Structures are given as C-alpha cells and as structure tokens.
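User: Some background: our group keeps a shared notebook of sequences we're curious about, and every so often someone picks one and asks for a predicted structure to add to the entry. Today it's my turn. The entry only has the sequence so far, pasted here. Could you supply the structure so I can complete it?
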Amino acid sequence: CCLASGLVLYHLAPLETLFLTPAPFTKGFTLAVPALLVLAFSPSDHALALRPSAAVLPPAAYGWPLRLLRLLVCGAYFFAGYAKLVRVGWGWASAENIRAWLLLANLDPQMGTLHAAGLWVADRAWACAAMGTLALLLELAFPAALFSRRARRWLVPAAALFHAGILALLGYAYLGLALLLLFVDGDALRGARKSAAEAGSRVS
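Assistant: Of course. Here's the predicted structure to add to the notebook entry:
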C-alpha cells in the first residue's frame, strides 16, 4: 500500500497545486513521497501482517526507517533555512522582507485566510522582525531533534506552531505537518499512560 501510494502521489500530487499554488513544494508533498517509499521497504513488527511471521528481527531492522524519515524531515527544515541564508542572507529575517511577504500573501484572496491577522503583523516592525528571526532559527536548529530528546520537546511543538502561524498569516497550508509525529516518543507516552492508570487504580 505504501509503495502504491508513493508512486501515485509522485505522479498526481503536482496536479493538486494547479488549483492553489504554482509550486508543489509549498504543500509538503516532497517529503510524503520518499516517506511512503521508505515505509514500503521497511519491516513492520508483524502485528499488521496478513500472515504473521515467526521470524524475529534485530531491533536495528526496525529502527532505520524511523531514523531515515527523521533525517528527511530535519533536512527539509535545515536546508530551507540554509537556502535563505545563501540566496538572501541574514537580511531575510528583516522586518521589511517579512512585511513584504505578508502583504503579498494577503493581496491574493486564494492565499490569505485571516487577512486581519497578517495585516496586523505587517503593521508592526517588531512583530515582523521577531517572526523572521524565530522562523530562521527554528529551521537552522531543527536538526538537533535528531540527537536530543530535550531539543525534540521544544522544537517539534515550535514547528507545529510555526506552520499554524504561517497558515493564519500567509495562507500556506503545509500538508507534511503530520510528519512531525515521527518525533513523538511512543514508548514514553505508553509508559506515562500506564503509570497514570496504575496510580489511578491505587487511589481507587
């Protein structure tokens, strides 16, 4: 299913942007396609297999797909920031540049979702400068989520808020937002839920 979805999305995803934006990379499909292909060639834990196998694979066999997908996501953020520095420089984060982007997006009725919010920020130089600086720092620092759980706790929610802000102020909907779930520690969540359940049973 992942292989078929990845191949179909590779051919059909750009068609969707003809109705919204002229470029498919603004929607996040450039990450979804390789992510689906990686999952197509990665082993499962046999829980979802139609014919469960008795073979037990080493932990490394299950860990590489997650690490590779995390690397792809971190690369998307980092190289977005790197491209800004190479093409424009630190001046990309200036209040004048961010204000120009806000005004441009809000002039297009198909892109601007909440015009009042974007224009409010555009009218305040300090808000524009803060928006540009924080966006650039987030993109350049995001690779730390590969190596540090503590950094993950800050960077992943910050990235989610970053995309929510872009949607509200500029009207760009990033469909690859769900890939941030790759950085959620499922074992820690299950452990916390189990501890909470045990604590509740002791209280009762």
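Suggested note for the entry: The chain has a mean pLDDT of 80. The chain has eight helices and no strands.
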